[in-house]
Amino acid sequence: MSSLNDCIKFHLNIEDPNIIFSDYFKKYINGKYHNLYVAELIQPYCPYCLFSNLKHNGHYTSNVRFITAYASHPVITRLKKQRVLCNACLKRSLAQYNLINKGCYISNTSKRKILYALLSSMMILIIYVNN
Known about the structure:
The protein is an alpha+beta fold. The protein has one domain (2-130). It is built from two helices and five strands; from the N terminus they run αβββββα. It has helices at 2-12, 108-130, and strands at 19-29, 32-41, 54-66, 75-86, 92-94. Strands 1, 2, 3, 4 and 5 form a five-stranded mixed sheet that branches. A hairpin with a 5-residue loop joins strand 4 and strand 5. The longest helix is centred in the C-terminal third of the chain and has 23 residues, at 108-130. The model has no long low-confidence stretch (mean pLDDT 83).
């Protein structure tokens, strides 16, 4: 499982040690084959008091979209975020991931790639109009 986890992290360029990939498969969605990766985002400590004795209280599953170099098969990561209850401060929290904004389902790397493509096409258009 460790080699599968490392291989998927390398393919998606993810360096977070709190994400553990468990499975992958292809699924036919809206007329296209998608590569789906199943991952769990663990929370090692409480974000409020930094206490590590947590009570696990289920998962919240979200589908995060990635853009890869091989764009004919889009990549979706089914990310299971841990819900935890801290035994010290009695606050509830949900594991957070720094590559996606809260409440968003598109990764920040995908947003940057789209923005770069738009800016480069605008630059080509500006050069064409000026000449």
